[in-house]
């Protein structure tokens, strides 16, 4: 708030202790900044810190909140723990597990979880490319390994690379944090490298099919968002492929049931927008199925 407003001056009128909870990354600097700001306002306010990372999937956030696999809370005092226990009591009546730990551990749990899932995706994409070279069927390989309870069948579907607001950001953040502490995360760097190159695989297939010349060709897209059930275009593989197609002289006609407006905001009139998936096929030379919407697969 602007200094001098009622919100700034009212702190000194209170005689309570507070708990600051952050759902994203917390650093010791946060506590220092908050304390300095309170002191500047002449208030004497005691407070504790807690970190409560979220594990919500886009398109299923409400369900994930009400039925979480686990609740992770980082605390810096017993008082903070008791406060968070009271806060979450109504949400853990069905015995959803709640794990208390120190704040750095809670933050690392969030980054590590997303990075592990990204690792599974990049690994399976790498295997898919090898399968194509060797004449194997990656879907048969996926079923074969997914039946192993130690591996499971989630996040082992090959595709055009992961995107969205979480996986790319968290993988890069973990790599950066490790590098700052002079410890290179070699596996995660490989995950990032594989994902970057995977977003070019479909483009390379199109170029190969048309013998390296797609000038004047029209390519249809079914799906644009980075995954179904969302209009999120952040780090979407479709944007990488479309950009490369346009640079080679091709035209693009696309349909997505949710992400059309967001795509128009990003790409404007660089591509043509169809009113449904079948219109997108009219007078086109190839179809790219980029997002596995139920109506498209």
Characteristic terms for this protein:
297 residues, Rossmann fold, N-(1-d-carboxylethyl)-l-norvaline Dehydrogenase, domain 2, 3 domains, four-stranded mixed beta sheet, four-stranded parallel beta sheet, 11 helices, disordered N terminus, UDP-Glc/GDP-Man_DH_N
Total DSSP helices: 11
Q: Helix content range of the residues, please? A: 40-55%
Q: Structural class from helices and strands?
A: alpha/beta
Low-confidence stretches: 1-7
Tell me the β content: 5-15%
Architecture of the largest domain, according to CATH? 3-Layer(aba) Sandwich
CATH class type of the largest domain: Alpha Beta
Largest sheet features:
4 strands, mixed
From the N-terminal CA to the C-terminal CA, the straight-line distance is 49 Å
The tally of strands reads 8
Q: What form results from the Cα inertia axes?
A: elongated
Rg, rounded, reads: 24 Å
CATH superfamily of the largest domain: NAD(P)-binding Rossmann-like Domain
Q: Strand order, main sheet: write it out.
A: 1-2-3-4
What is the string of helix and strand elements?
HEHEHEHEHHHHHEHEHEE
Enzyme class: oxidoreductase
Family: Belongs to the UDP-glucose/GDP-mannose dehydrogenase family.
Keywords: NAD, Oxidoreductase
Catalytic activity: UDP-alpha-D-glucose + 2 NAD(+) + H2O = UDP-alpha-D-glucuronate + 2 NADH + 3 H(+)
């Amino acid at each position: 708030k602007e200094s001098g407003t009622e919100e700034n001056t009212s702190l000194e009128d209170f005689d309570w202790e507070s708990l600051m909870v952050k759902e994203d990354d917390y650093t010791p600097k946060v506590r220092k900044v908050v304390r300095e700001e309170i002191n500047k306002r002449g208030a004497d306010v005691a407070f504790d810190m807690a970190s409560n990372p979220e594990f919500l999937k886009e398109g299923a956030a409400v369900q994930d909140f009400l039925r979480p696999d686990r609740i992770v809370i980082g605390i810096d005092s017993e008082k903070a723990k008791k406060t968070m226990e009271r806060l979450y009591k109504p949400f853990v009546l069905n015995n959803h597990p709640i794990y208390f730990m120190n704040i750095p551990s809670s933050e690392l749990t969030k980054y590590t979880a997303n990075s592990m899932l990204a690792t599974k995706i990049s690994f399976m994409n790498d295997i898919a490319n090898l399968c194509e070279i060797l004449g194997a069927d990656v879907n048969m390989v996926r079923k074969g390994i997914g039946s192993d309870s130690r591996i499971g069948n989630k996040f082992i579907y090959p595709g055009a690379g992961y995107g969205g607001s979480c996986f790319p950001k968290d993988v890069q953040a973990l790599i950066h944090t490790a590098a700052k502490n002079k410890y290179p995360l070699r596996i995660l760097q490989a995950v990032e490298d594989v994902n970057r190159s995977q977003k070019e695989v479909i483009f390379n297939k199109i170029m190969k099919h048309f013998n390296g010349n797609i000038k004047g060709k029209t390519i249809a897209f079914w799906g644009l968002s980075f995954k179904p059930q969302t209009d999120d275009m952040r780090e979407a593989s479709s944007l990488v492929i479309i950009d490369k197609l346009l640079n080679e002289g091709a035209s693009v006609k696309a349909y997505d049931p949710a992400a059309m407006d967001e795509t128009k905001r990003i790409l404007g009139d660089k591509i043509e927008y169809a009113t449904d998936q079948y219109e997108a096929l009219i007078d086109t030379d190839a179809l790219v199925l980029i997002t596995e919407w139920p109506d498209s697969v």
